[in-house]
Amino acid sequence: MKYIDEFRDPALARRLLEDITRRSTRPVQFMEFCGGHTHAIFKFGLRQMLPPTVRLSSGPGCPVCVTSATDLDRAIALAGVPDAILATFGDMVRVPGSRGSLQEARSRGADVRVVYSTLDALQIARQNPDRPVIFLGVGFETTAPTVAAAVLQAEEEDISNFYVFSVHKLTPPATRAILDAGEVRLSGIIGPGHVTTIIGADAWRFLPDDYGMPCVVAGFEPLDILRTVAMLVEMAEEGRPAVRNAYGRSVRAEGNRTALKIMYRVFEVGVADWRGFGPIPDSGLVLREEYTHRDATRVFPVEIAPPAAEPKGCRCGEVLRGVVEPPECPLFRRVCSPRTPVGPCMVSAEGACAAYYQYGEET
After folding, report:
1. Above 50 in pLDDT, residue 35?
2. Domain segments of the chain as ranges
3. Which pLDDT score is estimated for 308?
4. Percentage with pLDDT > 90 across the chain
5. What are the distances in angstroms from CA 116 to CA 111, 119, 120, 283?
6. Tell me: the pLDDT tens digits for 256-313?
7. Which residues pair with 281 in a beta bridge?
8. Using an 8 Å Cβ cutoff, are 36 and 42 in contact?
9. Is the pLDDT confidence value at 2 over 60?
10. Would you give the DSSP letter of residue 44?
11. CA 177 centroid distance within chain
């Protein structure tokens, strides 16, 4: 309870809001990259508390949402490899590809299993030595080191039937892509807390250096986010962009060097296909040459049809880029809901559409 009280102190929240209101003299728009931040902002009603000069918008920080339809189609095809077991996290099962989902593949007989960690998938491989076990590796820099560790463990134990289909993505290149596209006018970035615990606050130096854009790394409690907004407002008003850290209890400037060392021992940087963006250079993690015998896409070169168009009317890609908010999509609530999702932004627990739907904000 002490921890919760410390980061949800109403008196301190009032002081922070008063400070933000006093300092903010011109309109600004800050984007939170992380879907976890989006849900926290909506859950605690932070948008409604801020002055009208401060606007928050959601970004592409939902790894399930930004997994491309092509990669999902390939995962579904891999689930159809004879005797294969495909293991993945829960949200991925319901995300639509071009022609169905992993859940529908399972209903047709594919052995698709939901796991809570990469080590669960590794245990499935131990228990089924005569069957290929393919782990669908989805996530940002937060989860990639755990997948790398599982690959190294499989090597150490000589678990020859464990494979990875890596669709891991790196967050800074996507932020660059948003800024380079110029579709949204931003005044600052709320840096993702969990990701930055791994990559370090210094990884965001390019924002003030290359774009004149302030960035503050935030935690997930209400006061974390309000402090972050206060810092961003201060820098925007003074015209002195920098990278600041409002999540010092978890984030260091250099990040987690041990996790990064493990991640880059197994993976190297390559192109990644992002839903709503298309291919972004140097934004993905692919298995290094010495681990290609673990690469499911090389060991099982499945054929997939060219991806179909996105569902008619679905604006998930624009939501991910911050161009529109979910209520601007003609399918939102009318056709697309958590029970009958059309796009991944409504499926994932970190999706912006799911946040708007759950907490009821329309505009």
Report:
1. yes
2. 2-63+171-245, 69-168+255-299, 316-359
3. 65
4. 85
5. 16, 8, 7, 25
6. 999 999 999 999 999 999 999 999 999 999 999 999 999 999 999 998 887 666 778 8
7. none
8. no
9. no
10. T
11. 15
Task: Select the CATH number that applies to the domain covering 69-168+255-299 from these four: 3.40.50.10860, 3.40.50.11740, 3.90.70.10, 3.60.20.10.
Answer: 3.40.50.11740
pLDDT band per the 50, 70, 90 thresholds, residue 185: very high
Q: Which of 198-202, 272-276, 347-351 has the highest mean pLDDT?
A: 198-202
CA end-to-end span of the chain: 34
Mean model confidence pLDDT for the chain: 93
Fold match between 2-63+171-245 and 69-168+255-299?
yes
**Measured between alpha carbons, how far is 355 from 319 in angstroms, rounded to an integer?**
12
Q: Is 302 exposed, middle or buried (0-12, 13-18, 19+ CB in 10 A)?
A: middle
CATH number of 2-63+171-245: 3.40.50.11750
Of the two residues 152 and 96, the one the predictor is more confident about is: 152
Structure tokens at 178: 């948003």
- CA–CA gap between residue 343 and residue 111 (Å, rounded): 24
**Which class for 53: exposed (0-12), middle (13-18), buried (19 or more C-beta within 10 A)?**
middle
Tokens encoding 273: 């296909």
Q: What percent helix, strand, coil does the chain show, rounded to 5?
A: 45, 20, 35
Sign of the Cα torsion 74, 87, 342, 175 reads negative
Model confidence, pTM: 0.92
CA–CA gap between residue 300 and residue 302 (Å, rounded):
6
